[in-house]
Write a structure and sequence with these properties.
- This protein is α+β, with helices and mostly antiparallel strands.
- Helix content is 27%, strand content 21%.
- The protein is built from 9 helices and 14 strands.
- The strands form 3 sheets. It has a 6-stranded mixed β-sheet with strand order 4-5-8-7-9-13. A 5-stranded antiparallel β-sheet has the order 1-2-3-14-6.
- β7 and β8 form a beta hairpin.
- It is globular and about 60 Å long.
- The N and C termini lie far apart (39 Å).
- The chain binds zinc ion.
């Protein structure tokens, strides 16, 4: 089912497409596989039962797709991952971090349908507890500390990225679990790339205000020099959310050599990924799932 699209997307050695017969394929980060502390997978649109704009592995609960299809797709991907697609947060495009500890886990097990807290990052040091985020252009980020054995996943769309969601997740792992950023490994999954994320004056201005010193390396003007919103009302630019998140991870203390960017653009590859922007909001959702592997007894 994966076809030539998947093969073409495999040029980046940071990731590998994991294919097992009878299950949907998914991407994994090679450096995390080599490290062995955590499992992390992120999905494609291949291998599911949904049709139309949701074809075929739509995993989102907030789309107009048939719920029975979404549920079946989730079961298929869970079988491929070997872990449940447990969602812990309700995404809000901000920088709040939710900690899954023993108490949170017990409360969830006692009442699986209890409302989820609003946040865009979820962290844990509990082994075997799978963390999942759903997305369709936003940058999914996984952070693993093999020394303290801690894990985080982040949903960083442009708003969350500018709000520093990824930085907040690293900081929370340091504060809650005693992690050292220099020990951490990180991966950025499929998401809208600098090739396709074109923005107007309002976002350009926010990038300037919030990322000041980085703006030259994360923003490419499309109509001449960016002069400032007050002077040029119709200015356009392409923004590199991958680079911003990587710079935020480095600023937080991670080593550049331990940050891997999948460079899989959701908008460029309609055969492989859903894209909220490309498909004008009528589209499915992808999922990134990560879990700390249980240590051998
Ligand atoms: Zn693209």
């Amino acid at each position: 089912v994966s076809g030539s699209g998947a093969a073409a997307a495999q040029h980046n050695p940071a990731v590998t497409l994991v294919e097992t017969s009878g299950a949907p394929p998914y991407y994994a980060f090679r450096h995390l596989q080599a490290d062995g502390t955590a499992f992390c997978g992120f999905s494609t649109r291949l291998g599911g039962v949904s049709s139309g704009p949701y074809a075929s592995l739509n995993l989102g609960s907030t789309t107009a797709d048939a719920w029975a299809h979404v549920e079946q797709n989730r079961r298929c991907l869970e079988a491929a991952y070997g872990y449940p697609l447990t969602e812990w947060i309700r995404l809000e495009h901000g920088n709040q971090v939710h900690v899954v500890d023993e108490a949170v886990l017990a409360a969830r097990q006692a009442d699986p349908s209890s409302p989820l807290p609003s946040a865009d990052a979820v962290i844990t040091c509990l082994e075997g507890v799978a963390l999942t985020i759903y997305y369709a252009d936003c940058v999914p980020v996984v952070i693993v500390d093999p020394v303290r054995r801690a894990l985080g996943v982040v949903h960083a769309g442009w708003r969350g990225t500018l709000a520093g969601a990824t930085s907040s997740a690293v900081q929370a792992m340091v504060e809650r679990f005693g992690c050292e950023p220099a020990d951490m490994l990180a991966g950025l999954g499929s998401s809208i790339g600098p090739c396709c994320f074109e923005v107007g004056a309002d976002v350009i201005e926010q990038v300037r205000q919030r990322l000041g010193a980085w703006q030259e390396s994360v923003m490419q003007p499309l109509n001449g020099t960016l002069k400032g919103a007050a002077e040029v009302r119709d200015e356009r630019a392409r923004v590199d959310l991958w680079q911003i998140n990587a710079l935020q991870l480095e600023a937080a203390g991670l080593l550049a050599s331990r940050i891997q960017v999948s460079r899989l653009c959701t908008a460029c590859q309609p055969a492989l990924f859903y894209s909220y922007r490309r498909d004008r909001r009528v589209t499915g959702r992808l999922a990134m799932t990560a879990v700390l592997l249980r240590t051998q007894v």
